[in-house]
Structures are given as C-alpha cells and as structure tokens.
Write the structure tokens for this entry.
Amino acid sequence: MVRMKGCSIVKAAEPTRKGTLSLSEWDQVGIITHVPTIYFYRPPENWIRSPNKISTTLKESLSRALVAFYPLAGRLRWIGGRRLELNCNNAGVRFVESESVMKLDDFGDFSPSSKYDGLIPTVDYGLPIHELPLFMAQVTKFACGGISLSFVISHAVADGQSSLHFISEWAGLARGEPLKTAPFLDRKVLRAGDPPASQPFCSYHHSEFDKPPLLVGKSDNAEERKKKTTVTILRLTNEQVKTLQYTANECQNSSSRPYTRYETLTAHVWRCACKARKLVKEQPTALGICVDARSRIEPRLPTGYFGNATFDVIATSTAGELVSKPFSFAVRRIREAIEMVTNEYIWSTIEYLKNQKDLTKFQNLHALGSEEGPFYGNPNMGVVSWLRLPMYGLDFGWGKEIYVGPGTHDFDGDSLLISNPSGDGSLVLALCLQVEHMEPFKKHFYDDI
Ligand code: COA
C-alpha cells in the first residue's frame, strides 16, 4: 500500500565540527535504539499541486538544521565496556519519499495499527551501529492530498525534549525563520567522557538498576519476552481524569501538594495492569518512571541542552497491596519514587553508572531482538509522561498537523501518557501489552474509575 519513490542522504549544508563527541551515561542506558513519531497533515492545494515542493522544502531546511544540530548527522560507535561515543562525521541523515493509495479518512482516529506499516522509516539493526543514520524522516503522500511525516531519532543522541527542540527548529527554518535556540552540544556538563570520581559518590541504593521482579515461581523472563503484544490508544475525558484525581486526593493531608495527573493516571494504569495480568497477591511489581533532570539538577543545564537529561526511577509494591489497598496507596508509591530524585540523587546516579565496567545490562535493546537489558513487561510496567513535551503545532509552512502520535511501540508494559492538543484536559494513553491482557486491561481502565 506504500510505495517508496526515493531515498536520499541529507547532510549539513555547511562545514561542521568533525571528530568525537563524548556521550553522557544517560545517553548510553535505557533505550538506545530509535524512537518513532508520526504527524499527519492536510496541506493546502498550492503545496499539493507542485509535485516536489514539500519534499524539497523539507530536505533543504533539514540540511540547514543539521548545521546547528550536526551531531545528528554523525554516527555512533562502540567503545570499551559496551559504551558508545558519537563520531561527528556529517555522514548524514536519511530522507525517504513515498506515496500511498490510502486516504487520511482511512486512518479513523489515527490509533496506531497495521495501517502505519510502511509509513515510518525502518532501521536495519542488522547493520553495524556505525553505519546507522541517527535520524530518519519519511514523507508519504496519500491519494486524498494529505501527507504523513514521520521521524525516527536515536535515543542515544537525544531524549524527547531534545528531539522536539530539533524538530521544531527544523520546522521554523522550513518556514523561513531563523534558529530560535541554538542547541548546547557539550555533554561535559553531565560529565560525559570523564572517568569515575576518585572519591566515589554513590550514597544511595540505586534500586532502578536492580533487576526488575520476575513472575513468582519463574527463574527468568524468557517466556514473557516472547509473548505476542498489541498496542492501543485509550482516551480519558477531563471528567474521568478529575474523578480519578479526586479519589487519589481524598485522603491526602490538606497541607500536602495534591497528586498530579501523571501520578494519578500512572497509579491507575499500574493497578489495572496487575488486575488484567491476574497477578497473585504476593507478586512483586516495579513501575518505571522517566524523570527529567533539567528542572532538578544543580547547576542547571544550559538552555537548549541537547542530549539525554532523563533517566528512570522505579516505584515498587506487591500486586496484592496495589489492588486491595485504597487507590491513594498506589499514587503515594509513585510520588515517593519521584520525590527521591534530588540533585544529590541525580549526581549519584551518574556516578553509579560511571563505576560500571559494562553497560549492557542497563541497555534496552528490545528493538534489536536482544534478550539482554532490563524487562519492564509482565509483571512490571513503565509509564512515560509526554504531558509536557511541546509536540503540537508543528508547522513546516503548510499548516499545523491534524494528528500527531507515537509510532508503533511493541514492548510489553510500555506506555505513554499524552495530553490532548485541544487543551480540554482529556488525556491519551498509548499502551502496549501482551495480547491476552489488553481486553481485560481496557475493561478495568474504564470500569474502575
Ligand atoms: N506546563 C504546564 N503545567 C505545568 C508545567 C508546564 N510546563 N510544569 C508543571 N506544571 C504543573 C501541572 O499542572 C502539573 O500538574 P497536573 O498535571 O496535575 O496539572 C504539575 O505542575 C506538576 O507537574 P510535574 O512537576 O511535571 O509533575 P508530574 O507529576 O506531572 O510528572 C514527572 C512527574 C517525573 C513525570 C515529570 O516531572 C517529568 O520529569 N517529566 C518528564 C518526562 C519526560 O522527559 N518524558 C519524555 C521522555 S523522552
């Protein structure tokens, strides 16, 4: 249904700095593969009628964006201890042009499905890492005149905030505007490339790096990793969100800060997953929380810091406690995990990783079919907040998107919490679970509000 018309390599329009860029510890742990996002547009007639106007505009502006964001045009390479560094060599990014007989109306509410097949660039992880572009984009023209624009971006080079910084500067250049905020590229501010401190500074127990719990009675998670998964988009109205928040805050001391939407919804997701998976009451379960260090670290990171400033912490409990105790118990576990993240904790995390001889066990290589690395599938979960990511209103000159969402993600337990662009307070959960758990999850997700 999708036919590729062209594939090119786009390089920085002007000479850029060449050589090695050290990565921080956070760049090299967690997901180090590519993260997909897809935008859909209905461009006006004048853009659609001129055959190559859209792709020419995109390629030219991309090439200019890569002058400032030149690390993205480079390549990763392995160094000792399963660590990575970036070779800034302007090898370029990939740009794919394609067309499809589908129409935008065929996508319904744009929930990820097999209709996305062929619309998002595929990364050939069979190739050595130093041959893989760090950024790939694909524009697809539909029979109705609509288009999709998708990107995959290496998580070893940029987190969500930095990826959207790049994308929005690219769109600004495409509209003929100058760069708004130059990226800050030197990751030394997070001690990239530095050896461990001579006086170790690991004053905390970093439970986020412990092996996540296994199903009771199992000695490994090999079976769970192989189970077929499915993705879905679940929507909650503002009223449903408010009802959950009210229940969470009912027993909260009036002098304490009320629980946020993220804390509340994440607790709800965690509980529903325990029920849908029919976990026994003594089953330990961990919930991964991605925390942005930008507002928590001292000294503050320079404006436009480009890289990963996020890392995961975990909340833990047993399925029995989560399900049988009042809802506020689960919410409090999440609050406690987030509140643990102080400036000292953040630097201790970095030091902890610096002291590891080998980073393999901290790297999530699921997309490569690898069974190494942490497993946040059954009986565990992960909820990543996209609530504050500036992902809406991406205009390359032909108007804002009509829909944006994550590309397909296929890791059991992986979920994203996204706010509705209309700002009406409704929320979207993009969720991946094992096939057999999805229907029961949906039922609990709505019935338990
Ligand atoms: N715009 C609007 N509201 C804001 C805001 C902003 N920039 N910053 C804070 N707020 C308000 C919100 O009202 C929110 O409460 P509400 O959602 O109930 O309305 C409240 O302040 C608290 O927000 P926050 O401090 O972000 O806490 P949280 O509980 O919503 O989220 C974390 C906790 C750990 C997920 C969050 O602090 C964080 O680090 N997010 C980044 C995740 C990330 O990087 N995702 C991308 C991964 S690649």
